[in-house]
Fold:
Amino acid sequence: MSKYKTALTAFVICIIAMACTKNNLLLKEKMEGAGIDRTAASMLNILSLDTANISIGVFWPPTWDYVNDLQFQRLGRTGVDMLQYVITYTESQNLTILGKCAANNLKAIIFDARVYGSDTDISDMVNAYHTNPGLGGYYIKDEPFPDTLNWAARIYNKILSYDAVHLPHVNLLPSIASVFAGVNYETDYMQRWVNTVGSANLKYLATDIYPFQASGAFDNRYYPELDRLRRVALANSNIKTSAYLQSIGIPGAYRRPNANELTYNVYSMLAYGVKYPVWFTYFTPPNSVSETFTNAIITPTGDTTDLYNPFVQLNKEMKNLGKRLAKLAVYDVYHTGPNTPSGVATLPGDYFLQPVNANNDLLITRCKNWYEGSGRNYAMIVNKSLTQSKTITFNVAGWITYMGEISKTNGTESAVAIPGWQVTLTFAPGEGRLFCFNPY
Structure:
C-alpha cells in the first residue's frame, strides 16, 4: 500500500457514551427475544456507542503554510469533523491549528514528538492539549508492522490513562501488504491488535484499501478487506470502524477517481458499516523522489479542484444518513449480479429483498438498529455500476408490512409504497440508498 508519510499518520475522534448496567440488560433481553442468540447478544454492546452521527475526516489537511482563516473557514463548511495531521509540529504550531479548528467547529488529531518519549513526556503532551476544544486526538502510528503492535498499544493505553476522551490514533495495514504472506491476517494481526489494546479501550478499528487502480481496473480485494474489518469489529463489542476514501491518484499505482467513483467509494464503505470515513487526501501532498501525486480535493497551493463540489455534496449526504447509520449493526453485505467477485457473500434466496432481474450488480446489506423496538431491519442498496444509472424492481417478502427510506437530503424517514410486495427504485452510478422495514 502507498500512503503518504512525512512522518506517520493520524486518526479519528469520539466521545463514547457509556450505558448503565440496567440499559445493557434491557438491550440483551430485547436481542434474545428477537431470536439473537446469547453469544451474539454478548458480542453486541451497542449501547456503549456514541450514536449521534458518523464522523468524517480528512487526511493531509492544510499544511503549515496554509493554516489560515480562509482554509479553515472553507473546511468548516464542508461537513468534515476531523483533520488528521501527520507532520510533527511544535506545541505552538499545534495550538495554532487547534485554535483554527475550534473557531470553525472542527477537531484535529495532532502529532507531537513527545508521544514517542517517556511516560512523563506523554503526560506533558496530554496536559498541553487535552482541554483544548479543537482537539480530536493524538497521532501514534500509521500502518504498524506486526512486530510493533505491542509498542503502539502501550502508547495507546498510556494516552488513555491520562485522557480517556480523545482518540489515540493507529491505523492498521491492510491484508494485501507483503508482510502478511503466510500470516493469518485476521487473527494474528487485526484481532491481535484488538486484544492487545483491549476491545473496551479501542475507539475505532481502522485500515485502508484503495480500489481505483492506475490500470483502470477496480481492485476487488477491496470487498474482503472491508468485510474483514466489519466482521472483526462486530465480534468485539461492535467496535466502530474507520477506513479511507480514495480522492487522489498516484501514477503507476492508483488513478484519480471521478465523481461517480467517489460516490461509490462512499456508499460501499457505508454499506460495510464504516462509521468514520476519511478522505485520502484533502490537500494534495507535495511530490517527492519516491512518490508523485495527482491533484486531490485541494491543490498543493490551497485552491479547489473539480472534486471539491462532489466531496462537499457527499459529506452532506453522509451526515444526513449518518444519524441512522451510526446506530446500525451491519451483519452481512451481499453481492448480486454477473460480476460478483470471489471471496464475498452472495444474496441468499430467503432474504426479504430480492431483485427481480439477477443481472444487476448490487450491494445489499442486512442491518439492525437495536435502538428501535427489538431490532428494526434496515438495508442499504448500492448500485455497483460506476457509469450507468439503474432502475431496478425488487420483490419484498410478504411478511413486510412497511418500507421506508431515509432521505440523504435531510435525514427524515418517508414511506415507500410496496403494492403487491414489489418496489421499483432508481440509482445513479455508484449511489446507495438506505431503507427501513417493519415488522422488526
Summary: The domain at 21-326 is CATH 3.20.20.80 (TIM Barrel). The chain has two domains: 21-326, 329-438. The radius of gyration is 21 Å.
